[in-house]
Design brief:
The structure is a homodimer of 499-residue chains.
Chain A (H helix, E strand, L loop, with lengths): L8 E3 L7 H18 L3 E7 L5 H9 L7 E5 L14 H5 L7 E5 L2 H10 L5 H20 L3 E8 L2 H13 L9 H8 L1 H15 L6 E5 L3 H29 L37 H22 L3 E7 L5 H9 L7 E5 L5 H4 L5 H4 L8 E5 L8 H4 L5 H21 L2 E8 L2 H13 L9 H8 L1 H15 L6 E5 L3 H20 L1
Parallel strand pairs in A: 1-6, 2-4, 2-5, 3-4, 5-6, 7-9, 7-10, 8-9, 10-11
Chain lengths: 499, 499
């Protein structure tokens, strides 16, 4: 993602400009951003004792407290360590019109790992790509992303640490790490500088602030915030008037990912059945017993598993999921049904609600319908602008790449049936009392749009089947065949991983 | 809450009845409950090695995995310990139509505390009342609450623990505590029995299952579940037809709480001003400095603070909150704006979304509009049945009592202005560009309903002002006076607590 790098912008201390007018401008901009539904992410990093807390206090003085959150991020606790490292940050990304201020962030985490020699080059590169992916997605969806770094000299740092330790009310704020950083100031400085050079992008630039004087630091922050908000607001208003699809002034950040070849739906052989259908029950039992044992082993090996289910209405998603979960320890899996997003979910990036349901390591998350709604129903029903769903293929590949890099087994099932079979099942549902809840008018409406969906599904399969998160087409005209294929696919994937 | 106690119901092992038909009935009932929007809470407790896991696996075999969650609750971690002990359970209460199965629960926690002599009689009584409150609220809102206890003999327990330890795949499941419980079986048994006798209510009964044979245990569970679901479904359908407000077959669980006297709005003196308005700025600065210091001290003393703001539109909630937060360390407070509930929030108990925003200990949570919407806007706009909002006064008192028992400082501010002042401020907002976003048609509509709101507010103040969570009426025609009163009220409350 180097193409979009740029050098961090350094703010020199301002002359004696009054803060008052800046505060007023900022507070008006916050309201306009809220009205326009523009979210903002503000990352505040810096050398130890550079005054992050003061800077944030100074900044929020002018903000409506009902419109922002400050997140003091510290080292992840045991619980947080069981999720992808960016999980807790994704969860805290702001809703439309809100400002999320991070006092310490993913950069803090990366710095600490590097400073303590806990992170190799490969891991560092992966983590930087992931943060670029996160920030890029936010920016592309219209968010303001501001990254501030407060810089002080080694001498000034020493002075401040001593002062903090001298006061009994602030002593608890000084840790060994802080002193260690002061001792190895040069090294810390180099690590930060190199990190910022590689993570400063036009859509999420770093701003280095020489921060030895509190007032001028806050002044600089206001100028940076005001510029960024004005730019975003102008852009959003221009868009609103033109009605055009979002256009952003930078090369799309997403790195295209190599996909793997996969069948077109038209070529799927739906006549597949079991050689001997009387063998279904025993084979099912056997597969479930096998999966039960494997579930125990991935639990102990702390391997996470993410299974996505998509397919035509009545293709048998529920039945397949049930055959899976019957074999699983209920304490080690979760099924996440996906329906139309509610107001809160709509106010966030479309992948936010799925980040919230990523499994703990050692657990299995099963999604009944998934993030692929973006390129299926949202495309077909025109719920999302074309530019947005077109971009989603790469965004989704990156999302799944995040999970795979973390160590997750990721499989996406497409349950395929033909129109005749669907019609049979719709009628069966209507004629069976305890199945009637399963069939709605919407199912009939979707059915009429079969060709539109088939086009969307084919494009989706081609553009998002990857080595690390493959699509598996399940021939499901024959339910028994389909269920066993799902079970055995999961079993094979886990066994391959455990080898 | 003894009035609603009853003795736990003991299920004898069933004869050799087939499981198949029970499974089918249960799965049909789950679908009907989903369609009717009936949530269910299933608590599974038992002696160590009584087979909770097996029982849950057996139960969910028949359930649609998209309709339930299993929560394996263990001892709270450091993060969870910073919240009220029931917080993590409230967060997991089910949405309409869903089933939450607790493998270990609040009872586990109470048992452990008692078994380890970590809990005095007073605390035990408080915690039991709180669980009764939680279960009662769920039941009253239409949820099925089922509590299962799996009982095995000391001899059987010993046999099973040995067997588990013998197998290298299951060895990790056996802990010292399990053996300790077996050694002191009598004592454990007595504690559980006494606990169940005091927490078995008609709306949330305990079912003790003699659990030495797996099949008959699962059979018993199905019978208990089926009976409970059928009863709830019948009741709900009857209600739907009659259109009557909910009537439940038990004495309302809520214990009325003694309230404190408070003014009627009509008696509030709105002419209050500062003796010398030029003193506003210095007094504000002084109060904010004082609060800043106190914030540090409650942070270190780990005292949580909950501040609720209600009042007429344009009464100055935002301004008062801003003056507060300007004095606070941004890492130690959170402002929670409350607007109309979204779909997810509507699918839960109305207090659920507020439980989700309870502060950590040592932190301050500020609510801009609160849970009192239940007895104001929802009452006036007829969004909630009368029986439901009438019951809410006691429910809310109990909610706040939970927070107070936990150690929180709880204050609710009512910002009072008169109609003339509101009109002035509405016009001012319309005529000031950067304030226009603050005034909407809804504000004008609400204004027309002033008398209806005044009646509702007066009843609310009378019925929910308590010694542990008082209402403070803030005379706000004069903004300076109002803001200082809010600040000083918070300061006084914190100082009183720190003494």
């Amino acid at each position: 993602m180097a193409q979009s790098n740029e050098t961090p912008r350094v703010s020199e201390p301002m002359q004696q400009e009054k803060l008052g007018p800046l505060r007023v401008r900022m507070s008006v901009l916050q309201q306009r951003a809220r009205t326009l539904g523009i979210p903002a992410v503000v990352v505040v990093e810096g050398m130890s004792a550079a005054g992050k807390g003061d800077a944030i206090s100074g900044l929020i003085e002018s903000l409506d407290p009902r419109g922002f959150n400050v997140y003091a991020m510290r080292a992840p606790n045991e619980q947080e360590k069981r999720f992808p490292w960016l999980h807790r940050y994704h969860q805290r990304t702001p809703a439309k019109g809100r400002i999320a201020i991070f006092d310490g962030s993913w950069y803090d985490e990366m710095f600490a790992a590097q400073f303590n020699d806990d992170m190799g080059d490969a891991e560092r590169q992966i983590k930087r790509n992931q943060t670029c992916d996160m920030e890029g997605k936010l920016a592309t969806s219209g968010a303001v992303v501001i990254k501030l770094f407060l810089l002080i000299s080694q001498k000034e740092q020493k002075k401040r640490l001593k002062k903090l330790e001298g006061d009994k009310h602030t002593r608890w704020r000084v840790s060994k790490i802080d002193w260690l950083q002061n001792k190895h100031y040069e090294r810390a400085h180099d690590i930060y500088t190199e990190m910022m050079e590689h993570t400063s992008h036009p859509f999420a630039p770093w701003h280095v602030i020489l921060s030895e004087d509190r007032k001028s630091t806050i002044r600089s922050i206001y100028h940076i915030m005001i510029d960024a908000f004005e730019q975003a607001i102008t852009q959003k208003e221009a868009l609103a008037q033109s009605g055009a699809a979002p256009e952003y002034g930078f090369v799309p950040y997403v790195k295209p990912i190599q996909t793997a070849p996969i069948q077109l739906l038209g070529d799927v052989d739906l006549n597949k059945t079991l050689e001997d259908d009387t063998q279904y029950k025993p084979q099912l039992k056997q597969a479930q017993q096998r999966l039960k044992d494997l579930h125990n082993r991935i639990y102990q090996a702390k391997i996470p598993v993410v299974l996505g289910f998509e397919g035509w209405d009545a293709a048998g998603k529920g039945g397949s999921i049930l055959r899976l979960t019957q074999a699983l320890d209920p304490r080690g899996f979760q099924v996440n049904p996906t329906s139309a997003p509610d107001a809160t979910e709509l106010a966030h990036h479309y992948l936010w609600r799925f980040w919230n349901h990523v499994p703990k390591n050692g657990h299995i998350a099963i999604f009944d319908r998934t993030w692929y709604g973006r390129v299926m129903v949202e495309r077909v029903e025109k719920l999302t602008a074309e530019g947005d769903w077109r971009r989603a293929y790469d965004e989704i590949n990156q999302f799944e790449h995040n999970l795979a890099d973390w160590g997750a087994i990721v499989i996406k099932f497409w349950l395929q049936i033909d129109q005749e079979e669907q019609l049979r099942r719709f009628h069966d549902r209507q004629n069976t009392p305890e199945k009637q809840y399963k069939i709605t008018d919407e199912d009939w409406r979707n059915r009429e749009k079969w060709p539109l969906y088939e086009t969307a599904v084919n494009e989706m399969l081609q553009k998002t089947s990857t080595s690390f998160a493959p699509w598996v087409i399940v021939e499901s005209n024959n339910k028994h065949y389909g269920r066993l294929k799902v079970l055995n696919t999961v079993i094979d994937a886990i066994e391959a991983r455990l080898k």
